[in-house]
C-alpha cells in the first residue's frame, strides 16, 4: 500500500514545476517563457532538455528545486537567460558568455557568411596576399570589438589558413574571449589584443576587417527590452547618432587593409544610407549594404581600392 508521504507533491513533478514556472515567466512579460523555464530547470538538474523531457512525469531530484528557484528568480528580474546559464550558441558553436560581453545573436552570423562570400569571390587575389603573410597562415583577418570572441573563433573555425587578430577595449571581455579561443582549439591562430579599435595594431594590415560595433543611439537604450540593461553599455551605446564608433571604424580601416581588402560591419536597420556615405567618403569602392534574413539593412560591405 502506497502512503501519501511516498507520493511527490504535484509541484515537485518535473512537468508541473516547468509549467508553473512558464506561467510566472509569461506573466512577467517574457515571450520565451516555456523555453526559458525548461532550460533553467534542466540547468538546475544538471541535465539536457532531452533528458528533462524523459523525466517529465517524475519527481524533481533532491536539491534541484532550490537551485531552480534561484535561477528562476534571476530570470524574473529580466537577467538574460544566456548569462544565467553561462553560454550561447553562435555559428553552431557553443560559447561561454558573461555580463562582460554582448550576447552573440543570430543576426550577427550574417557577418561570417559575408566574409566567407567575399573571400571566395576574390580568391584570385589571394596568392598575392599570401606572399605578404608571415608564417604558415595565409589570410590575415581582424575582428574589432571581439567581445566573447564569437566572430573571431567562427572565422578561424571556417578558414584553416587564416590568422585572426581580435581587438577589444575591455580586459574583462578579452578574458571571456580567451576561454572561448581555448575551448574551440584555435589559440594558435587567434590573437587577442587589448586595444581601442586599431590603437595597438602596430603596422598590421589585413585582408578583411569585421566588426559588430555599438550602434544604438544613446537616447534609445532606455526604451529597449529590459534584458539589454544587463549587457555592457559600451558594447551597445553608439553615441547620440548611433554612429560614433562606426564613423571612427570606417575612417580608420582603409590604412589597415591591404589593396582589395574588405570592411564588413554590422549596422542598425536605419543606418544604411548614412554608413554608405561614410564608406564612400573614406575612399572605399564597391560599397553596399547587405540585408538580413528579415530584409532589413544589416551590414556594410565595402572594398578598398
Structural account:
It contains eleven helices and nine strands. 39% of the residues are buried. The protein is 37% helix and 19% strand. The chain has two domains: 74 residues, Helicase, Ruva Protein, domain 3 (Orthogonal Bundle); 207 residues, Rossmann fold, CATH 3.40.50. The longest helix has 14 residues. The termini are far apart. It is of the alpha/beta class and 305 residues long. The chain is elongated.
Write out key terms for the chains shown:
elongated, alpha/beta, Rossmann fold, disordered N terminus, 11 helices, Helicase, Ruva Protein, domain 3, 305 residues, 7-stranded mixed beta sheet
- Structural class call reads alpha/beta
From the coordinates shown, what is the CATH architecture of the largest domain? 3-Layer(aba) Sandwich
Q: What would the CATH topology of the largest domain be?
A: Rossmann fold
Distance between the termini: 84 Å
CATH class of the largest domain: Alpha Beta
Element order: H for helix, E for strand: HHHHHEEHHEHEHEEHEHEE
Number of helices: 11
User: Looking across the biggest beta sheet, what order are the strands in?
Assistant: 5-4-3-6-7-9-8
Number of distinct beta strands: 9
What fraction of residues sit in β-strands? 15-25%
Number of domains: 2
Helix content: 25-40%
Mean pLDDT: 92
Rg (CA only): 23 Å
Envelope shape: elongated
Low-pLDDT stretches are 1-10, 125-136
Structure, briefly:
The protein has 305 residues and is an alpha/beta fold.
Topology of this protein?
Elements: H1 14-27, H2 33-45, H3 49-54, H4 64-76, H5 81-85, E1 87-90, E2 93-96, H6 109-121, H7 126-132, E3 139-144, H8 150-158, E4 162-168, H9 171-183, E5 190-194, E6 206-211, H10 244-252, E7 257-266, H11 272-281, E8 284-291, E9 297-304
Parallel strand pairs: 3-4, 3-6, 4-5, 6-7
Antiparallel strand pairs: 1-2, 7-9, 8-9
